[in-house]
Design a protein that fits this description.
178 residues; mainly alpha; 7 helices
């Protein structure tokens, strides 16, 4: 039986998890485009369109900076940013500014590994993350099976293999997925 070829965006919007992620990403990109002129005035080297800089969840826009140098200036401009977003029809009730460090991995206490004692919270979070990435792995495998032989199919297969390898390392070392 032959499956008709479908575009990747159609496949992703059919899956509830990926559709929600894509909608959130689109909303964050729209907000970033709207606030970009104000950000250019305040901090010329801040690009809100850079991936990972803006995140819009439940009417809260989070702006992640790579350094704290512009944090104060941006916090002072929050009323202007909110007014601009609302004038463009975006429902944003709050803006939070944060500094994103290069690595945000939670590490267990230094003595937890040596003594054999593990935090229940770290264990529970690791199990939840592993379950989430197990479903992501299943999705990439399913995606690779539905695509015709192409570069995109090979990329989906490669992504699935990378997730599978990382999950195996995560389970062996009791680390969180980062």
């Amino acid at each position: 039986m032959s499956h008709p070829a479908r575009r990747l965006d159609q496949i992703l919007t059919d899956a509830p998890l990926s559709a929600a992620i894509l909608a959130r990403l689109a909303a964050a990109q729209q907000a970033a485009r709207i606030i970009a002129p104000i950000c250019a005035e305040i901090a010329p080297d801040l690009d809100p369109l850079r991936p990972g800089t803006c995140d819009l969840r439940e009417r809260v826009l989070r702006i992640w900076l790579r350094s704290s140098a512009h944090s104060t200036k941006l916090r002072q401009a929050i009323p202007r940013l909110l007014a601009r977003l609302q004038s463009h029809g975006l429902e944003v009730s709050e803006i939070k500014v944060g500094v994103q460090l290069p690595t945000l991995r939670e590490k267990p206490p230094a003595n937890a590994r040596n003594s054999g004692a593990k935090s229940e919270l770290v264990q529970a979070r690791g199990a939840d993350e592993a379950a989430g990435y197990d479903s992501l792995l299943a999705f990439t495998q399913k995606l690779a099976l539905t695509l015709p032989e192409s570069g995109l199919r090979r990329a989906a297969t490669k992504l699935g293999l990378a997730i599978d390898a990382r999950l195996a390392r995560m389970r062996e070392s009791d680390q969180t997925f980062d």
